[in-house]
# Entry
Amino acid sequence: MQFTAQQIAAIINGSIEGNHDTIVKSVAKIEEAKEGDLCFLSNPKYEEYLYTSKASVVIVSKSLELNGAVSPTLVRVEDAYSAFAVLLEKYNEIISGASKTGIDSDAKISATATLGKDVYVGSFAYVGDNARIGDNVKIYPGAFVGDNAVIGNNTRLYAGVRIYNECVLGADVVIHSGAIVGSDGFGFAPLADGTYKKIPQIGNVIIEDNVEVGANTTIDRATMGSTVIRSGVKLDNLIQVAHNVEIGENTVIAAQTGISGSTKIGRNCVIGGQVGIVGHIQIADGTRINAQSGVSKSITATNTTITGSPAYDYKSSLKSQAIFRNLPELTQRLQKLEETIQELTALIGNQNLEVKK
# Structure
């Protein structure tokens, strides 16, 4: 796929310096670009590469003053970084098949399912009984949508996604390959003979608008009621969200985090990778949890940062780490202090004996 400098400028509302017909076929970093590449320059630290770059087209800010001759065609915009992001989004729509419509011949769609306008359903995808699919939804090959599921407008389900029965997805949701929404929560009752009896999981999962779920992430259905992912949440790959969890608006969670059942996470939280959170607790709005932390109790104060396992206040943790690093020196000082005290004690004892004599 290729574009001309003129086409690029039209998409990002830029002005051209150089050949309007210059063709680009791929994107690259400015320090690595070759002929046929498109790149951008926004960080002044990389300006030196502009004068030696072999890129065909470079997006730069209008405010940039050149300090020498350049060979690439320049496209000037108000903000190079933002413009490049817009261009990448447009490019991604094209290469990801976001504009696809129609039903592949080997897809399976229930006669009782309803589909909106401009829907795409890929090969070997399945849409179950009474499922409701909104406008411009893209269901890529091998995806599964269970009975009575609801998929909102402009939502994308990539290859191999599984949306179980009764689950509800809002508009503009993106679910990446291998993710599973609505699998059974981990509910088992211990019996007297040492075995376990499964507790039926009869709830569902509700995912609100503008949520993105990473590859191979699992979101369990509620035992009763709903597991809820609020609007704007971004989940990385390989995350486990247990039954009846609620994640507040615009919270972001990094890979390999596990959230146990019935925990409520507030809005605008930032949770690092490999964080473990126990069940039945509350995490206040704006909480920041550092990677590999273990959260074992509720966080009630808003906008706090915690770390460690068990996790506690970040600033206190830094002070503790500083003390820990100084422990060898502190131990030597303590030993010397003990020796001095012993010497003083012996000296005082000898003086007392002399006085008594």
Summary: The first strand starts at residue 3 and ends at 4.
